[in-house]
Amino acid sequence: MWRGLWTLVSRAARGPHSPRPCTRQGSRYPGPGSGATIFALSSGQGRCGIAVIRTSGPASGHALRSLTAPRDLPPARKACLRLLSDPRSGEPLDRALVLWFPGPQSFTGEDCTEFHVHGGPAVVSGVLQALGSVPGLRPAEAGEFTRRAFAHGKLSLTEVEGLADLIHAETEAQRRQALRQLDGELGDLCRGWAETLTKALAHVEAYIDFSEDDNLEEGVLDQADSEVRKLEVALGVHLRDARRGQRLRSGAHVVVAGPPNAGKSSLVNLLSRKPVSIVSPEPGTTRDVLETPVDLAGFPALLSDTAGLREGVGPVEQEGVRRAQKRLEQADLILAVLDATDLASPASCNFLDTVVIPAGAGNPSGNSQRLLLVLNKSDLLPAGCSDPHPDLPSHLLLSCLTGVGTRPQAHF
């Protein structure tokens, strides 16, 4: 069952990001900050073994000398052990590794320094205060290091976006996608499109200016028209895939739905590996939408447990049913859960007729790319009964109680 679910989630999640402005090799604008040197804690907040504090700007070398006086600057891009002291009082702050990155061979293209200090809050606070006392230095604004890297042509816009996604990646799929973009995959694609348009424009201009000359190749205009039409198709495909990239970034929306007491909450708890929903034999236990993020084989997903779909209930549960139906319309993937021992009940039949069958109506094989039918409680079926309902659409047979059917199967 896992592999079947992972496959459908990956289909919903995989794909390139929506297109952004193309890459940029340089900048026509002056570097931000008007010559100011910035500093900030680059590693995460909180106690840790090592914390990294870095600076960027023309006064970086002066800041390094001020905290390690009277020592000279270390060799470029080589770590050196230095005693850091407060430039005002001379009080020792920490013994740290320092690195010197002279521009333009640095992340931002400016002179940069890094202080690898011990990660205690007092040490980090002391070093930051010492840097703040150095003339010409100020705390960096959010994202200012990356903004300077872009302004100095070290990163393109697509690479900046990839870097942000890589920092915030929580799953393997998000990491791989962000790393591909940071390495320039999307930028190379945009540059290819730009080169195609430039070439086509050159051919059209040549045809306009030199159409009467014998030196002009035959079919130049037809070739330009063909290339532009191919590019139009490629752009259309990429734009249609933009939603997949968003799913990978924010997570595919997986909605668990079905009639009351089918085992929806048990399945949510099983997939999330924690007690997200209350499980009870009493129908209508879940009356609101409960959400939890999960990592399915490296693909992010937002799992939603919904109220059992039925009629003739109280106003509170009826509101839960209304919200469940609304979530079904918004879902990237629906996990339709039915009780394998109670498929003939009115609630199960109504769910099959109103949700399961319409979802697969457009597919000749009866399968849906956005719905997975799950028959729960297989442990209650008679012994030796492998699949008592072969007439149903493609489905998975499992038991949330025993775990049978939840492991990857070879036919997926």
Instruction: Assign a percent range to the helix content.
Output: 25-40%
- The portion of residues forming beta strands comes to 15-25%
Secondary-structure-derived class:
alpha/beta
- Largest sheet composition: 6 strands, mixed
What's the β-strand tally? 12
Give helix and strand order, one letter per element, not per position.
HEEHEEEHEHHHHHHEHEEHEHEE
Q: Could you give the order of strands across the largest sheet?
A: 3-4-5-2-1-6
Distance between the termini: 8 Å
Mean pLDDT: 78
Tell me, briefly, the overall form: flat
Pfam families: MnmE_helical, TrmE_N
Keywords: GTP-binding, Nucleotide-binding
Protein name: tRNA modification GTPase GTPBP3, mitochondrial isoform X3
Organism: Odocoileus virginianus (White-tailed deer)
Description:
Residues 14-34 are annotated as: Disordered. Residues 251-412 form the TrmE-type G domain. This is tRNA modification GTPase GTPBP3, mitochondrial isoform X3. There is one protein chain. This protein has 412 residues and is α/β, with parallel strands linked by helices. It contains 12 helices and 12 strands. It has helices at 2-13, 60-68, 121-132, 144-151, 157-168, 172-182, 185-210, 220-240, 242-250, 264-272, 315-330, 346-359; strands spanning 37-41, 48-56, 80-85, 92-101, 112-119, 137-139, 252-257, 290-296, 299-305, 333-339, 371-376, 395-397. It has a 6-stranded mixed beta sheet with strand order 3-4-5-2-1-6. A 6-stranded mixed beta sheet has the order 8-9-7-10-11-12, sandwiched between helices. Strand 10, helix 12 (346-359) and strand 11 form a beta-alpha-beta unit. The radius of gyration is 30 Å and the shape is flat. The protein starts with a helix and ends in a 15-residue tail after the last strand.
